Each structure stands twice: as structure tokens, then as C-alpha cells.
Amino acid sequence: MGESMEFKIEGLSKTIGEKKILSGLNLLLKEGDVLALRGSNGSGKTTFLRIIAGVDKDYEGKIEFEQGLTLGYVPQDIVLFESLSVKDNLKTFCNGNNAKENFTRLENYAKELNLLGLFKKKVNKLSGGQKRLVNFLVGIASNPKIILLDEVIVGMDEDTVNKVIKLINVIKADKIMIITSHQDEFMREVCNITGRLTDGKLELGYEN
Length: 208
Prior knowledge:
Blueprint: E1 6-16, E2 19-30, E3 34-38, H1 45-53, E4 60-65, E5 71-74, H2 86-93, H3 99-112, H4 128-139, E6 146-150, H5 158-171, E7 176-180, H6 184-190, E8 193-198, E9 201-206
Parallel strand pairs: 3-7, 3-8, 5-6, 6-7
Antiparallel strand pairs: 1-2, 1-4, 8-9
Helix pairs in contact: 2-4
């Protein structure tokens, strides 16, 4: 058997103007770990995820993971094509050599999330919570090993949140995930590690 997948951050710092947003952060996550990233508004959670995702390249420090591993980022902003149907959005994001296999997998996820009935509907006709679900699926369209979820359940009702919890708990075993949310119960249901950003520092704890 090969070694377990690892994701490592060393000395990660980020400054905006005169303000130090992140200050010398260190983090080691292994396959199956799901980190609940907490912190007040403006504490740097989204900045942290954007740096890991490669969206923000202006930082100091090192981010290391095995070459060839794919990364999926689900931002707070909706990244869907509003004029396309749900199905066409999913197909658009399922590209590359494994497009057909990945689309079949997303169809199965959509079934678990009660989205199949919306496949022909245009995104601009969906509710906010429904858009969040589709946004979640396109973010994991490539079957990434590292998944970043930024406030993914905003606008969802309790039943839908429970379906997302169930799906995350199914897929997380061979992945590494970092999740931000203001809903503590959601975090407790899916995460085994907690992290809190305060004054640019990351303090870790372990749930189980």
C-alpha cells in the first residue's frame, strides 16, 4: 500500500496594505481529514482558501501536496452559467479525459441531493439554495482529492443541509477537506479537526 496523502502548509503569511491577515500559519492534514475553519468575519478564512486554491498568489510561505492531485474550490460566489440548464452546467465543468465518468458520478450525487428533477431548468430560475447545491457539485466535478468549501450551505433549508452532510460523509474518506461555515452543527457532523483564525494565527483542535 502507498503512503497516505498529505497536505502541508508552512509559514503562510498574507498582508493587505498595513494589515497582516495571516501570520506564519502551519498546517498538516492527511487523507480523510476534514478541517472546520472558524473565525469571525474578516478573520481571513476566505483569503486562506483563495490562497490554497491558487486564486490569490500574493503570499509568503509554502503549500505542498503530492504532484498530480486535483483541488476543488467551492467559493461563496456562485460561479455557474445562469443562462444554461443545471445539466449543461454540470457537463461544462466535467471536462478532460474522465468527463463521462465524472458526469455519471455527479448525476449520482444529484440524485442524493434531490436535484435530478431540476436538470432541465435554467440556473437563473433556481432558488438561492438550489444554486448553492449546483455550485457545490461543479466545484467537485473533477473528483478532486483536496476540497475547499467556503460557506457552501448558505441559503439551504435544514433538509437540504442534512443531505449535504450525508454526501460529504460518503465522499470524505479518501479526500482532504477544509470547510468554512457559521453553522456549528453542520461542522460537527462532517469535521474531525477544528481550526480557528484569530489575529492572523491558526489554533487547531481535534474533535475525534
